[in-house]
Write a structure and sequence with these properties.
With 266 residues, the chain is an alpha+beta fold. It contains 8 helices and 15 strands. The strands form 3 sheets. It has an 8-stranded mixed sheet, with helices on both faces. The protein has a 5-stranded mixed sheet with strand order 12-11-13-15-14, sandwiched between helices. Strand 9 and strand 10 (144-145) form a beta hairpin. The longest helix has 26 residues, at 2-27.
Length: 266
């Protein structure tokens, strides 16, 4: 299994690099954008990037299942499942905002085992494999080991939020507001960026409520291998049905979760 996962990680990094070449080409030029049934945009870059990722993954692992943002499922009868979001942050992409990324993760029997998060226009690629640590490379540099902060008190914590519309509509909103008053500072970096910052120790808490597993699977492996805790807002393990995130430095997870749940039980 170890050799297979090493090979899978190398392949995922190669696939992410190939996708970046396509995405960067369109980002600097012209492309066609359409609106999908869920009212989100999709571009040629999304579709062609997923095509090249699938081609690379299927060549090396023809028996593995793939679930991608643009093309859905390829087989569902394998214990290995690749999760692919070729261009996470398409809304940013179409507005010439460089905060977008390619996300590739691998699940084995429902457990996330590796992830690659490539943000080409931002000049960062992060990756991790279960039990082997997390790393981040800037530009063409070598990967540097990632480690979350040792922050232990909420009063010292920096919190970042993103995609919180459903949180604003739900019963936790007041508790969330109270949580922010106890934190040291609050920001909204969003998408891949606040997870990279969390994994490198520059943030302490990330909260999101409108995500899907393709957005966060790779990032979860990276944060966990950097020493952080990554669950949904209720503290539940991630699954294909996950729609929210509570990712933190280890000493803060329980306190933040309790704060958010406190409103429900008040």
């Amino acid at each position: 299994m170890s050799d297979l996962l090493d090979h899978a990680l190398r392949t995922a990094r190669h696939a992410a690099s190939a996708a970046a070449a396509i995405i960067d080409g369109y980002y600097k030029g012209n492309y066609r954008a359409e609106i999908k049934p869920d009212s989100t945009p999709v571009t040629q870059a999304d579709i062609e990037a997923e095509d090249v990722i699938r081609t690379i993954l299927q060549k090396e692992f023809p028996d593995h299942a793939i679930y991608g943002e643009e093309h859905g499922w390829k087989r569902q009868d394998s214990e290995f499942l690749w999760l692919v979001d070729p261009l996470d942050g398409t809304k940013s992409f179409v507005r010439r905002n460089p905060v977008f990324s390619t996300q590739i993760a691998l699940m084995h029997r429902g457990e996330l085992v590796l992830g690659v998060s490539s943000a080409s226009q931002f000049g960062q690629t992060a990756w991790a494999r279960r039990g082997k640590g997390a790393f981040l490379a800037r530009g063409n540099g070598e990967g540097e080991a990632l480690c979350v902060a040792a922050t232990a008190q909420l009063s010292d914590a920096a919190i970042s939020t993103g995609n919180i519309k459903s949180l604003a509509r739900g019963p936790r909103w007041n508790a969330f507001g109270e949580l922010l008053t106890h934190a040291n500072r609050a920001r909204g970096y969003g998408d891949f960026l606040h997870y990279h910052l969390l994994a490198q120790g520059s943030l302490d808490v990330v909260i999101e409520s409108d995500v899907n597993i393709l957005d966060i699977a790779a990032l979860a492996v990276i944060v966990r291998e950097a020493g952080g805790i990554f669950t949904d807002l209720s503290g539940v393990e991630l699954s294909l049905a996950t729609t929210s995130v509570l990712a933190t430095a280890p000493a803060l997870h329980g306190a933040v979760k309790a704060q958010l749940e406190g409103w429900n039980h008040a």
